[in-house]
Amino acid sequence: MSFSQDVWQRNHALYQKTLALPFNQELAAGTLDKAAFCHYVIQDAHYLVAYGRALAVCGAKAFDADDIIQFTQGAKEAIVVERSLHDGFMQDFGISKNDFENTPLTLACHHYTSFLTATAWSESYPVVLASLLPCFWIYAEVGKDIVNTSVPNNPYQAWVDTYSGEEFNEAVKNVLLTIDRIAARCDADTIEKMHQAYTKGAELEYLFWDGAYHQRQWLSLDEK
User: Membrane spanning segments where (predicted)?
Assistant: First the structure.
């Protein structure tokens, strides 16, 4: 069994819970509260900057030239996507540049981005790669799972089309081929650390969407 097959099997129950989150189900139905989606878009734009940094470090640690190209190009694309959010979803949903720049990272986003950057700098290439995989793979699988249930004239159809689309899924396929090739040369201890990194990333994906749905923020001193 390849690493990707094994890690997906180990975390399949968590994926099903992620797919069943109200955010994803209501997004497919077109009934997701606009404020929740706007909250998500702002946090996702913040997240993608940190994700791009982690991808760049992953590329720097890669074992060969093709992998360096793959992940440094991925870092560039993460930043391009972040910027396109300003011209796309943010414009469509009335989110101003000032709104974005003055909205701090939420607890879930801060936790997730801190995990990715800390892992990127402190761990080996295979473990860094495993930590980054959930963002690629889970988004693609959610997109494919909900595209057929998305309602006509869904206000969130552009999001569904992005992550169910051929271009994004081809990129995910290439990352899976890379991680399986890398895992095949790793020892048992490294493989286990890869599993742990993937699972933590998958848990944080769940918390990111759940936090967006409930629009969770940091507690103020008065709320503690």
Answer: none
